[in-house]
Design a protein that fits this description.
Length: about 270
């Protein structure tokens, strides 16, 4: 299996994604921003459609469009503070409208199934390079902003009072979410990207540990889910996105059952 180039590419991409997605996912969960991840993952469909129509690498156009949507979401949240879900619906509706129009026009130069459901066959060296570059930038930014993000996550008003540039950091964080999602499309697929950002975090939280320990376990579970999902998808010939999503849910269920018998608090 590992002697095949496309499997090597898929596992390399999966390794990068397995670190980045749960890292961002923990902050999304704790800040109750889970729907932002879901909205941006579906919005990336429009970016993919644009790339397919104009003949540009869909990962690049998905990255640009998803980043733009992330900025718009954070901008509109200032005007709809009490109705954050309304902003998600607006961006999601607009993005899907663009995607449907472009795909239904018949001008797309490739099938969209690999982007909707993920495909280990279509991950190229160019994709690996893009994922690696964006992944490193996102990880460096997260590490650099780590303490401030924790402060904002648990006490946003206190962070503002202390002089932390909350608005700027929120914009940067939302852009990082969009960037991570756009880079995960090839392996995970648009429809289930948000699952690998949220489910490993939910699994790690069952262990009832501190923040940093939960973060490490989230990355560990994310890595296990993606690697096992890719392994299974190869042998049962299934879409990796769905296989990884199911694997992550089964992992969560097993940890919950294990907790019932051994109680992680003890």
């Amino acid at each position: 299996m590992f002697q095949l180039d496309f499997m090597q590419n898929a596992f390399m991409a999966g390794f990068i994604i397995s670190i980045l997605c749960p890292f961002i996912g923990l902050f999304l969960v704790l800040r109750r921003y889970s729907m932002i991840g879901d909205t941006l993952s579906h919005s990336s469909f429009a970016g993919v459609a644009i790339g397919l129509v104009i003949g540009v690498n869909p990962l690049i156009t998905a990255f640009l469009f998803t980043t733009l949507c992330a900025i718009v979401i954070e901008f509109l949240r200032e005007y709809y503070k009490k109705y954050a879900e309304l902003v998600m619906s607006l961006v999601l509706t607009f993005s899907l409208g663009i995607a449907i129009i472009l795909i239904s026009s018949g001008k797309a130069s490739a099938k969209v199934n690999s982007f909707l459901f993920g495909s280990i066959l279509t991950v190229s060296k160019e994709d690996i390079f893009l994922i690696l570059i964006v992944g490193i930038i996102c990880l460096v930014a997260l590490i650099f902003l780590f303490n401030k993000l924790i402060y904002i996550t648990f006490d946003e008003e206190g962070a503002k009072t202390s002089g932390v540039k909350v608005k700027l950091i929120n914009y940067i964080f939302t852009i990082l979410v969009g960037s991570t999602i756009s880079m995960s499309i090839r392996v995970m697929g648009i429809l289930v990207i948000s699952s690998i950002m949220i489910v490993p975090v939910a699994t790690a939280m069952q262990l009832k540990k501190g923040f940093k320990t939960t973060l490490l376990f989230s990355i560990g579970f994310g890595m296990f889910d993606i690697m096992m999902g890719l392994f299974l998808s190869y042998y049962i010939n299934s879409a990796p996105g769905g296989t990884i999503a199911i694997t992550s849910v089964f992992t969560l269920i097993l940890v919950i059952i294990f907790d019932k018998f051994f109680n992680f608090k003890q």
